[in-house]
Amino acid sequence: MPKILCDRFQNCYFFTKKNEDINGIDIHNELDKCNSIKDIFDLVKDCVKEATRESRAGLDIGLAELGNKPNALISAYYPFGSNIIVLNMTPLRRIMETKPDILKPYLFAILLHEYIHSLGYADEEAVREMSYAICRDIFGEGHPATRLSLDTKEFFPYLIYPGGHPTGNELRVIEVEDIDYIG
Ligand SMILES: [Zn+2]
Questions:
Q1: 89 with 167: CB under 8 angstroms?
Q2: Residue 100 in domain
Q3: How far is ligand 1, taken at its centre, from the CA of residue 123, in Å?
């Protein structure tokens, strides 16, 4: 556990109880049951609250076509101080075309990372460590969410279009009617 993490996080539930349940909830199972980006985001918020006792409300998720370069990808970003997490649509579409079974782990890892930023953690390395620690403790070391939380590069064949993909203009905030977006 890196020194950089806050005390609350070091004392978190996940590091003292080595199983996959929080409050009797099996997270693997909960992730499988998610039917939308919002469901996954709610699960992320529950896990972070369990791990750090921190939470915040009033965050939107926006979808934008941010494209990808032949060897680079911005999966998502959180404009610091804002109330929106912007998800790049491009890798979501690419995943659905290449390896749909990593869609939920991918969304979990990416939303977790940005959500931790939104709680006021600006340091990229610290956020990565926190995301990784949470994923590892609830899903295990080899789970795609855990691997994605450290680095998405390993999964680039499923996330990026090899020849690159252009950026679009639209930013769409997810509403309730997008509940069926996944699958
Ligand atoms: Zn970040």
A1: no
A2: yes
A3: 8
Cα–Cα distance for residue pair 163/69, rounded to 1 Å: 8
Q: Distance from the CA of 24 to the center of ligand 1, in angstroms?
A: 30
CATH number of the domain bearing residue 68: 3.30.2010.10
Nearest to 6 by CA among 119, 105, 93: 119
Q: How far is CA 61 from CA 3, 54, 107, in A?
A: 31, 19, 12
Q: How far is the CA of 131 from the centre of ligand 1 (A)?
A: 10
Ligand 1 center to residue 171 CA distance, Å? Answer: 20
Ligand 1: centre distance to CA 65 (Å):
18
What whole-number distance in Å separates Cα of residue 139 and Cα of residue 173? 29
pTM to 2 decimal places? 0.86
pLDDT tens for each residue of 100-153: 999 999 999 999 999 999 999 999 999 999 999 999 988 889 999 999 999 999
Domain encompassing residue 87: 26-176
Ligand 1 midpoint to CA 58 (Å)? 20
**Is residue 162 included in any domain, yes or no?**
yes
Ligand 1 centre distance from Cα of residue 42 (Å)? 19
For residue 25, report the distance from its CA to the centre of ligand 1, in Å.
28
